Each structure stands twice: as structure tokens, then as C-alpha cells.
Amino acid sequence: MGSTKKRPSTRKRPQTGVLDPEPYLGSTAIDFSRVDARGVRTARRPRGEALARFQQAALRQAAEAERRLPRLVDKIRAVAHAGDALRLYSSVTLLQRMRRTAPGHIGFGADAMAEFFGGLVTAMPVEQVLARLGAEPDLQSLWTLDALLREYAIAQMRIGERKLVQEGASDQLDRARHLLEFENQFDRMLGYPAQLRVIYTSITDRLSDRSQSALGFALKDALIVADAYGEVLVEREHSVAERLQPLLNQIPRKTPRDELVEHLGRHMAGIATFASAPVEDLVELLTQRTGIPRDQLSRLLDAMTTQLGSQPTFANLFETNILRRRPIIGLPDGRKLWASPGDFMHLALDWAADVCSQNPALLRAFDKRRQDACEELAYQALLEVFGAEHVHRSATYPANGQRPDVDVLVATPGCSIVVEAKAGRFTDPARRGAPERVRKKSREFIDKALDQNARTIRHFQQGAEDLRDKDKRPLTIPNAPHITSVIVMLDRVDPFATHLPDGGKRGHIPADGTWLVNLADLLMVADILRHPAEFYAYAELRARINKLGGPTILVETEALGLWCEKRIPAVRPGEGEVMTLAVTSQLMNDYYTRDRDDPEQPSSRPTSGVPTEVLKALANVMEQRPGDWHSLTVEALSVPPARWSPLVKALETARAARQSRKGRKRVRRASTGLGVTDNLTVCLVDDNNARALQEPRPDVLAIPISPPHRLRHPQDGT
């Protein structure tokens, strides 16, 4: 499930809060009674009478929601009929984007409802829409529409809960299927632009000539056009916000809360109304902005357009909405409305597959390029972390008379990582939770990949004989005993990463678990955790979490953020327990969606919080005693950042030219061994204290420094 992410811009976007702090889709009915220090919360599934009451309540709420749905749709349509429906759609889309300044779970689902309303607008009779085009805007109508869409979303969610109660979720496949259905309705964000852009361009750049020949435009230009128009809209939003700011400044500082909410509501509605994308001649505007030939640009925009009146029967969130992949609304006179070009990146690959489907040869080339790019980008990401010496692509080994390959192999003296890349397209029926389609994709993406990685690991454990590189030359690797299994999927299918459902064709599986990760998330993790020890520890932990079953990870960005801040553990839930992450970490959102021109927003990359000296010491262990590297790395990287404070203070004091008595005592303690955990002791050592390096213990991490004063060794005593 992609957490809410916004598109960064080169101009400062108006920052507005969310008037209602409640999550857009409402709060969970489950009582999570225990939250531990690592940010994991635990609840017990209801049983017996409690379960019966819960199920009865869910069924009652769903029945009531089902009765309300037709009336809600009628009310939504009435708001559209009474005003300029196109402007309302554009305004409610901008209003939902404003929600992204709040934590992701607050606005989750809002983007999908704006898209749903856009579908209803394209279902209206063309003449009726055009008759009200340009009508005077009514700010209250925008809030009325927003409230109705939210009520509709919650009603649909209640109906989904009834389906879960009726069908059950006894195994991982059913849980993944229900979550897929939920995400298909409400989730529209697939990652951060920093990673999505790299993936899309890597796939489409090499198809430029073929797509130009087959379609009359280059696939790669779609992102160029979206970026160009996005900048236009951001400039307009900035201008409107500046004009409205004086009105906001006039609000008295001690205004009662109810009045303040009313003022802020008018301000938000004003920005959403007057800064939203208009109906205009996009071909003329973007020809000037991009330099793309007019005829090619016209064909490209047409391929991204849903014509007004083109889906007259659309009326339900469960139905296919053409606007989801063709996000521009086209008018009969050739003008267009593109409400949110900054979000095109999230649907770009699905759009590209749709337009390529018109030409079978181009679609085959597109699918092949997807697989190649998935392997290439995973390889490049790991190469930047572990170095070219330790990362190999398409290595092969003998097995049952054949030579299967390892898409990406990391082989260091201290650890190995085997990566299987899966770039097959996840079909619409599977995303809607169709049972057989989900089962089929589980076999293709999970069962097969698990079996492949298990076979590879087994070969390595048996000696890694006759290993060859991609050019068929003999390849010798350190063949460390600790091997982590990773599956990388190009398409985002978070429910698969969460539950690893069994499609019924599973053979062997890696004994220590497997981390299934979306490619965009892998690139993000590699960008944040750039040291081999950091990346390996996180990958190993994620594999262990999947093996033990807890905590349930719905969003990788939140898992990584919380790991960087507190260190999440791998735990096995007890009978009847549900374990999830207790908080929503904004660490990654704040960094990847920051405005680079705003000095108040975070500019430094999030880190693991492990002192640099510890990471350097682990690098020394990799070189000098690799047999201890795995255990020391996993232990050191499980330490919450705050617990490194005594070591950091000792390092600062040891390097100081002058030391207080208290400081000398702190350094002496560190030189005789700081017990960081029950299984990890850290020692400061220098040339006068070399025995710590000569006689290492498997639980001791020696940090060499050059202080102005002599240090001690644990065996020297106090």
C-alpha cells in the first residue's frame, strides 16, 4: 500500500494544513492495547462472542452503507450539475493534494475519490457539462462535494469489510486478495518521483524509436510533458497563494478555534478553486514549453485523454474508470483539462502498457525492456552499496542438466544476497482481487521466485561449484555461509510483499525467509542505506520479519523510516495476535517530497543513526575476520540510535586535547568495553592497546582511534 506521497516542485507549493485530523477513511475499530518501545503495537483478534458482535456490527454497517450509496451518488451528481463540473473536479483534485502536507494515513483514499468524481464527470452528458462551463464558482460547493466523496469512500469501505467477514481470511492468499481489492479502490501512489522517474526513463528511453514509429510519439516524452505542465500549475498555485496570503494574515492571533477553522476552510477552498488547472489548449501551451513537434505532441496528449461523455455508464468505485490511466479530460473543441500532471508518474507504466497494447510487437519489446530494466536497476543499486568487486549480474550455475541464472548476486566475505527480479505486469483482474488471477500471479511472482532462490542458496551451501559470470567465464566468490533471499518486483503489489501468498505451486523456500520488495522501494532503501552493513542488516531483518510473521509491514517507506528512528524488530505473533507498526513515520516523506528551495524543510538524507566509527569498524571486520561480520552487523544495526550516545560521547572525549576527570573516566570505560547489548561489546583501541585487535572475541567490535592519551584494553583491568 503506497503511503501518500506528493510531487516535489522547483517552486514552493502553498502549505496548508488539514482541517480534519481524522483519517480520510475513518479510524480502525480494532483496539491496539499494547505498544512497545520499538513502535510495534499488538492486538488480539476477537473470538467467541466478541467476534460474533464484531461481525454483526460489520454486517449492519455494510447494509446501511449499501442503502446510502445510491443516494450519495445522486447527491454528488447534483453538486456537479449545479456548477461547473470540470472546475469542481480540478478543484477537488487540488484540495486532495493539499492533504498531502499531513501524515500519509490522514489523506489516504482522498486522491482515489477525486479520480472517482472525475469519472462521474466524464459520464455526464457532454451538453450538460458544457452548458455550465465557466459558471461562477461557489466555495461552499467544494466542501460539500469533498464531504460527500468522503462519506461515499467510507461507505464503500464498510461494504468491503462485509466481504471480508463473509469470505474470511484464513490464509495468506485470502488476506492478500482482500488487501489488493482495498488498494485498487483507494491507493493511487506508487512511490517517490526520485525512483519512479529513473524506472520509467530506463524502460522507455531505449524504446523511443520503436514507439515513435508505431505510435507516432515517443513514450519517454509523456513524462517530459507531465513535468512541463506540472511546472505551469505550480507557478499558478504560487501566484494565487501570494494573492490570498494577506487575507490569511488578517486573521486575529487569538481567534476561537471554530472561527479559525472557518477562515482556513475558506482559504483552502480559495486556493483549490482559483489555482486549480483550467480547461485550456494544452497542445499550444506545451509545444512552446517542451519543443516537441506539434503533431507528435497532439497524438501523445490524445493517447493520454479520456473524452468527455466517453463512459456514460460509469457510476461505481468498483468499475473500471478510464480516467485512471488516461488522466486528461478532453472537450469536443480540442481543449483539455489535466488536473494533476504531477501524479502522472504513478500511472505512467500502466499507461504505457495500455498504449503499447495497440501494437503486439511493441508490447513484446516493452515487456522485455521491463524485465531488463528491473535487473539492471537492481544490479546498479546494489553495486553502489557493495562495490563492483562483490556484485554480479546473471551468474549461472549447474542444476538438473541446465544452467539457471541469478539475476543479481551480492557475494562478500561476510554475507551473500541472491536477488530474483520479476517484471511481469500485474493485470487489472488480479488488482481487483479476482481469486484465480491472484493465485496465478502468486505462482508467477512468488512461488517460482522462492523456489529459484532456494535452489541457488542450496547450490552455494553445497560449495558453489562451476559458477560462471554472464560472459560464461569461471566466477569464484567468497561464498559466505549467511545468505539472504530477495525478490524484486517491478510493479508495486504491496499485499504480496506483506503476506507472500502461496499460489499452490510452491516447492522449496529459503529457510531464513525472503524480503519481497518493489523495485522503487529497493532503490529508495539503497539510496538511504549506503553502507554494506546498513543495507544488509535491513534486508536480513525484512526477510526475518516475513519468516516470523511480525510485525505486519504494509508500507516499506514507513518500515524503513521507523527502522532508522527506532529499529523495528522481527517477532513471531502469538496465537490470535495482530502485530503492526504503531506509528506512521514521516522521515522518508519529509525527505523525498521536500521543497529544495525552502530552507525550513529537511535537506539532509535520513540515516541509520549508527556512528560512522562503528560502520568503519564493521568494514574492518569484513576484511580481517569475515566469519564474525554477520553476527556483529546484525547485532550492531539492531541497536536503537539513541543507545549509541555513550559511545559517541566517549569518542568525542577521547579525541579532545584536554579532558576532564569525568571525561577520562568515560574514555577508560569505553577502552575496557562498553556493553551495548548482551551480545555486543564495543572497545576503543589504539596502538598502545593493540591486543583488542590481535585477540578478538566474536562479540567484540574494536574501534581504532588515535587519541592524545593512552587507552586501555579489557584485560588491563581498571
UniProtKB/TrEMBL annotation:
Comp. bias regions, Basic residues: 1-14
Region (Disordered) location: 1-21
Top-rank taxon, per record: Bacteria
The protein's name in its UniProt record: NERD domain-containing protein
Originating species: Amycolatopsis deserti
Source species taxonomy: Bacteria, Bacillati, Actinomycetota, Actinomycetes, Pseudonocardiales
